[in-house]
Amino acid sequence: MNQPRDLFAAPANATPETIHAAFAAQLPTALHWRESTAAERLTRIKRLRDAILARREAIYAAFEKDFRKPPAEVEASELLPVLDEIRHVLGRLKRWMKPHKVWPTSTMLGTSAKVQYQPRGRVLIIAPWNYPFSLCLAPLVSALAAGNTAIIKPSEMTPAVSALLVELIADVFPPDEVAIFEGAAATSQALLALPFDHIFFTGSPAVGKLVMAAAAQHLTSVTLELGGKSPTIVDQTADLKLAAETIMWGKFINNGQTCVAPDHVYVHETVKDAFVSACRTVLQARYGANDAQQKQSPDLARIVNLRHTQRLAGLLQDAVQRGARVSCGGVVDEAAHYIAPTLLEQIPADAEIMSEEIFGPLLPIISYSELDQVIAAINAAPKPLALYIWSRNEGHIGKVMQRTSSGGACVNHCVAHFAHGNLPFGGVNNSGIGNAHGEFGFKAFSHERAVLRSSPIMTIKLFFPPYTAKRNYIIRKVVDMLRLPML
User: Fold this and answer.
1) Angle of the 159-172 helix axis to the 56-66 helix axis, nearest 10
2) The Aldehyde dehydrogenase domain covers which part of the protein (predicted)?
3) Which residues contact 62 (CB under 8 A, 6 or more apart)?
4) What pLDDT, in 10s, does the model give residues 239-251?
5) How far is CA 360 from CA 124, 250, 257, 339, 474, in A?
6) Alpha-carbon gap, residue 389 to 394, rounded angstroms
């Protein structure tokens, strides 16, 4: 079914003509791939894996250009998630693809049934800029595992990584299987105008609403991986040293540009000063003992561009002008796209940083006295993508887990749930729709088809007209039986 690789002179050249050509070319492939075997799908995924590993040094260089991102973070946050997803798929895909039988309900006795997993067809993957490699290719792995063709739109805000992805995809797949188009809003709009069978979008809630509105024009299903202000709670029983070490990692990896990063921390008033001191000690040990050393640290990534640097600088300035106190950091160099790891205290409720998603290296620390007050504040805000609690008190942990809602949650940890392949990753309402990763990602790109087969005993005939007195009596008795507990 493959068409020649030169079907399009430049797969990344996003014009209405090339976009429509790729979309049309993928239709016969998508129809053919409905019958694809696990072995065929895994062969494609293995080709992708091998191409990634062959470009390791080029991937480092691309992230150095776009983010000045340390190679260790490239490995841990860009390569590891994709390769782990691939490894998971290689070991489990046959099991996931296998139709599973279901028992008949009481009214369906005499039938057999199963759930069959079918590819959705042609899918669109719109990737974000904060993790432009892993959040592009990990969904692609799930899409390929489910037997779909794909068109990818990488972020224009990370041009070096985007160019690398274009070269990688074009080298591994012909465009009638997987195509990729660079560009800004106009490219996204042209793609969203097409009747895809599924759209997988990762980005902000504001843009997610636009994607959902466009999908609604064709009743296209969506997976929306969004964001929000993920709160963290540190109560008076927490292991403060471990909490500080882990939260400082979760917050400042990728310089805070992480959708599940702790956005703000509620700390019990009796341990707040000790917690802040522990955080300051961790930051100095990891990035440097003073401002100059931290700015020169090779282990701290940069803000993606000038616009986002200015946005973060504005949040910091607004908070300070309204009375917030900088406990650590606060240094800004807009030209270098640099903002130091910053801890803020005594933030007034009307500061912009308390309502805007931060998505950068600024961490508000909020003192509290009663856990119920924190839970009320969390429930008054849109449902976050993640929620974290640090505590040794099972009563406190249980109360937070039962009385709040979030896409995911960690107890005495943060961010790590994203990497757990057997857990669903996704948001709720404002923070997202649908799940990804592992079997959940496979299902996101699959249609779960209900298949029922009759047997020689056709009990449904009891419900056929004409509705005689005897038949009415039998139907009524069947309905009355449904009041009984399920066997």
Assistant:
1) 150
2) 8-450
3) 158, 160, 161, 163, 164
4) 999 999 999 999 9
5) 28, 12, 5, 8, 67
6) 11
Contact 420, 442 (CB under 8 A): no
Instruction: Tell me where in the chain the CATH 3.40.605.10 domain(s) lie.
Output: 16-227+436-448
Amino acid sitting at position 324:
A
pLDDT tens, 25-61? 999 999 999 999 999 999 999 999 999 999 999 999 9
Residues carrying an active site annotation: 225, 259
| Cross-strand pairs, 268 | 368
Instruction: Check pLDDT > 80 for residue 368.
Output: yes
* Burial of 479 per CB tally in 10 Å (0-12, 13-18, 19+): exposed
Q: Kindly tell me the burial class for residue 8, based on how many C-beta atoms sit within 10 Å of its own C-beta (0-12, 13-18, 19 or more).
A: buried
What is residue 486's predicted lDDT score, i.e. its pLDDT? 63
Dist CA 304 CA 65 (whole Å) = 10
Q: How far apart are CA 15 and CA 187, in angstroms?
A: 8
Task: Report, at the CATH architecture level, how domain 16-227+436-448 is classified.
Answer: 3-Layer(aba) Sandwich (3.40)
| Residues 439-464: tens digit of each pLDDT | 999 999 999 999 999 988 888 888 89
Domain 231-427 sits in CATH at 3.40.309.10
- 8 Å CB contact between 357 and 204: yes
